[in-house]
Design goal:
By secondary structure, the protein is α/β, with parallel strands linked by helices. It has helices spanning 23-33, 44-54, 66-82, 103-116, 149-158, 178-181, 191-197, 213-216, 241-247, 285-295, 306-310, 345-356, 371-377, 381-401, 521-530, 604-609, 612-621, 632-639, and strands at 92-98, 133-138, 201-209, 256-260, 300-303, 319-323, 363-369, 407-413, 416-417, 419-421, 434-435, 446-447, 449-454, 459-462, 465-468, 485-488, 496-497, 501-506, 516-518.
Length: 649
């Protein structure tokens, strides 16, 4: 192989650009990276990497060749062998919840993201897919094979599975039974409440109403998820979700509340959303919240636009509430710039983190990408994928903001949907496009994405025969194109799916997520990582065995948890229906810190080339490909500066 003046294979000058995989562009990007000043100490390694990459391009079709797959697998293996469990106590916890982000939705969103950036799409990753630990969660409710978001939220936030449409109560409470819901023994405290009892600050960020099912499970206990305001529980002696948020514990103690839902909170407005309840008591709970905080001596702010949120100084306030729409926040694709525009999920997440990080005891933050679910309920995957990418922006921003040595980050979904990827489309085919297969009996193409039920049902009868819609006659990429469904439903009434959902985790004790778990295990594992709630006493005990040995770390005994330095909690957690038996306590010792990286995601060669600062950012956000980023612009965006500088410039 000969090299041209730029040090690249000579055939790059003649090969056409813009193919399915532009190998010459990849090599040029790495050639530019090789000139980084940080790589000056090892000038031979970039050239070796360039030579290696030059053999990954298969001739003819422009797709990856045999050597590429061999090299990527070996790199992935080396990364896996370098992973070390982090046994620290989690000072902070962040739970990102993609509502309805099942495995199929996640896969399709990954491809969508890559294709938006001009790639094939299949080769990329979502940021959380580069986390070192992953698991599957079983999502069924106690009384339903396929769950709803209220029962699932109660599971992963409160640690107990419950009935369909029930929030914060155990399965002894039937749906809609107000009297049974008032039984205090039926209430199931959430991990947010456990965090508060341990002295931590707490926050909620969501793109849905702040009183919607997922956020409500952190602070409310109701026998029906629709009891968001007083008019929904009229005639019954039960308190609505919005009232519980403002006036009851733990809702009244939440430091950051950002999302939609002004209507259920009683904010006067000329706009009424018919899809949710309106208050009958004429109370504006946002003003009651402000008055309450000020009477208690706190500095509190209530904001209603993205601009107002951006002007909030976290150092000058104690509590923050932001409600940016009467109901759910607008879809990301419908966001209109301007003074009154709502913030993005990323904007809200960063503001929440900067306020919560003031706490010496740490924090718990729930961030929900809630409108993924709503779009899929309407058979609108384009909108769902834009929401998923917006959530990834929030995850990536958070990873840059926190210290993964002391912050547990979990990304998961509450349930899936009935969308499927089907057919045999070519590699890189538009994920929102269609494919023509010669096995169809009607000779019509069909979309890669389809639903088993939903409002996208589109069949007609012609001459006594059932005829389906031809997707090649319309723009299937349009955000409002409803993808075809087999069984008709009303708008926004496509159902959930019942299969397991994925979970990804990084940070202290993230290795506790390691196989197929029941969904309620999430709250218990996070509590154990942070030494709070039902696991507060566990952290005073000698650690359990980590199980097995690591190839590069051979301890004489299992690693032990680093002792928490936080003050004793304000109250001792007692499990429901009696106290647990005390166990003998053993002295704790500091966690063993192996020399190798805890969270490697890059190839070993690039780990040697990048500085510690650059490596931290890249490992936190997760690269696009196994070998590393193939586009210098991606790295530039992550590092916040040019990565194409040459010596002497």
């Amino acid at each position: 192989m000969t090299l041209g003046s730029a040090g690249l294979p000579s055939q790059c000058a003649s090969e056409p650009q813009g193919g399915k995989v532009d190998c010459c562009r990849v090599l040029q990007d790495f050639d530019q990276m090789a000139r980084l000043r940080t790589m000056a100490a090892a000038p031979s390694l970039p050239l070796l990497l360039l030579l290696l990459l030059s053999f990954t391009c298969a001739p003819g079709n422009g797709l990856e060749g045999r050597q590429h797959w061999w090299n990527s697998a070996r790199n992935e293996l080396l990364e896996a062998l370098h992973v070390r469990d982090n046994w620290n106590v989690a000072k902070n916890m962040i739970l990102f919840l993609g509502d309805g982000m099942g495995v199929t939705a996640n896969t399709a969103a990954r491809i969508f993201k890559g294709q938006k950036r001009g790639r094939l799409g299949e080769e990329g990753y979502m940021a959380w897919e580069r986390f070192p630990n992953a698991a599957l969660l079983k999502t069924y409710n106690v009384d339903k094979q396929v769950p709803d978001s209220a029962g699932t939220a109660t599971a992963f936030l409160c640690g107990i599975k419950t009935n369909y449409y029930v929030i914060g109560l155990d399965s002894s409470v039937p749906l809609g039974d107000c009297k049974a819901s008032r039984n205090p023994t039926a209430r199931t405290p959430s991990i947010l409440q456990w965090a508060q009892e341990a002295g931590k600050d707490t926050g909620i960020v969501t793109s849905t109403r702040i009183t919607h099912a997922t956020p409500a499970a952190t602070y409310a206990a109701v026998a029906h998820r629709n009891w968001e305001c007083d008019s929904a529980v009229v005639g019954q002696d039960c308190t609505d979700i919005a009232h519980q948020l403002v006036h009851d514990e733990p809702g009244r103690n939440i430091k950051v509340l950002l999302g939609g839902g002004r209507q259920t909170m009683g904010v006067p407005s000329d706009t009424v959303d018919a899809t949710t309840c309106t208050r009958n008591d004429s109370r504006d709970l946002t003003q009651e919240w402000l008055t309450q905080k000020k009477s208690e001596g706190y500095k509190a702010r209530y904001v209603t636009t993205g601009r107002e949120l951006s002007h909030v100084d976290p150092d000058k306030i104690d509590f923050l509430m932001g409600l940016f729409h009467e109901s759910h926040m607008p879809y990301e694709i419908d966001r209109v710039p301007g003074p009154s525009a709502p913030p993005t999920l990323k904007d809200m997440t960063l503001k929440a983190l900067r306020l919560l990080q003031k706490s010496d005891e740490g924090f718990f933050l729930l961030v929900e990408g809630g409108r993924i679910d709503h779009a899929l309920h309407d058979n609108l995957p384009h909108r769902a994928f834009e929401e998923t990418v917006a959530m990834e922006d929030a995850v990536t921003a958070a990873l840059k903001e926190v210290d993964l040595d002391e912050t547990l980050v979990v990304v998961t979904a509450d349930h899936s949907h009935v969308m499927t990827m089907n057919g045999y489309p070519d590699r890189g085919n538009d994920i929102l496009g269609w494919v023509l297969e010669n096995t169809t009996t009607d000779g019509l193409p069909y979309t890669t994405l389809m639903f088993t039920n939903g409002p996208g049902f589109n069949y007609s009868a012609v001459d006594g025969k059932v005829v389906r819609h031809d997707p090649s006659t319309v723009d299937t990429r349009h955000p409002d194109y409803r993808f075809q469904a087999a069984v008709p439903t009303l708008p926004i009434k496509e159902t959930h799916g019942g299969e397991d959902v994925a979970l990804w985790a990084t940070g202290p004790m993230s290795h506790l997520f390691h196989r197929t778990h029941e969904q309620h295990y999430v709250a218990h594992a996070m509590a154990y990582a942070a030494c709070i709630g039902p696991s507060e006493e566990d952290c005073k005990l000698d650690s359990r065995s980590a199980g097995g040995r690591n190839l590069r770390y051979h301890p004489t005994e299992a690693p032990r948890r680093r002792a928490s330095t936080r003050k004793p909690s304000r109250r001792t957690y007692k499990p429901p229906h009696g106290n647990r038996k005390a166990e003998a306590a053993s002295p704790s010792i500091s966690v063993v810190r192996p020399d190798s990286p805890k969270f490697p995601t890059l190839s070993p060669i690039l780990q040697q080339l990048l500085s510690d600062g650059e490596l931290k950012i890249l490992t936190a956000t997760g690269p696009e490909t196994v070998n590393s980023f193939s586009n210098a612009l991606d790295i530039q965006e992550l590092l916040g500066r040019s990565v194409t500088s040459v010596h002497g410039t």
